[in-house]
Input
Amino acid sequence: MTVMAGCTAETTPWTVWIADLEGRVVALDGRTGAPMPDPVEAEGIRAAAVVPVGDDVVVADFETGELHRLGTGESLIWQNPPSGLRLEEPCDLAVTPDGTLWALGNDTENILGLTAARLARSTGAARELGGHDAPIPRAHGLTATPDGELWVALSRTWVGQPILERWNPLSGERVATLDVPELDAATDVTLSGGVLWVADWSSGQLMRLDPLTGRQLPAATTTLDRPLSLAPVPGGGVVVLTEEEGLFVVSASGVVDRLAPAPEGSTPRGVTVVALGG
Output
């Protein structure tokens, strides 16, 4: 998900992108919640995650593991081979400052990286981060940091025991692990205003953590109903996509505003934000 800093939600235009399993990719004005013109078509794609790349967006198909670049013309940029490196049940996407697209998958608990060259020309190499001493049954969320590292939200069991991991893509090493026993299920993680925000689908809680120490910071908000996905917004807050109630903006000071209701007939899964001119 896109990381932004040094701007405010009140003065900087920003766009919210939402992906759903019905094959819709919707863009909304971040300040009004109004739909943006020229919607992106993702027909036939069970879009579990979306991220802007240049003038286009990349979406991940939850069923096939395919990654599609949409906008100026659809382009299949990743398709699972019969054997070898595979992306299973992708649930989140992020782009690091060097232009590499990262996709978080389940089953094999892998983090797949596609180089900028592959994104541009559908050529080049893919590589994988990951590996654990014990199986991690479920991966949930992924976000990039300004210095090019990745935070990942995982669960040790199917029903909980969430952990956060920080990975260095250059070295391929996991450089930090944070246990968050206060949460039941960490459904997503993002970095905004230098703070890690974590969403708990079960309790609806949003937790704020110091990314260096793991120390829990004062709570930002009351609970929201079944938060699925987070993205940073200008000013240090987050936009929260919930399962049934739609989109909410939570400021760094804890003020909650409803941005837009859930689209009718939608099964939303992924959200990301891009600041325009910020």
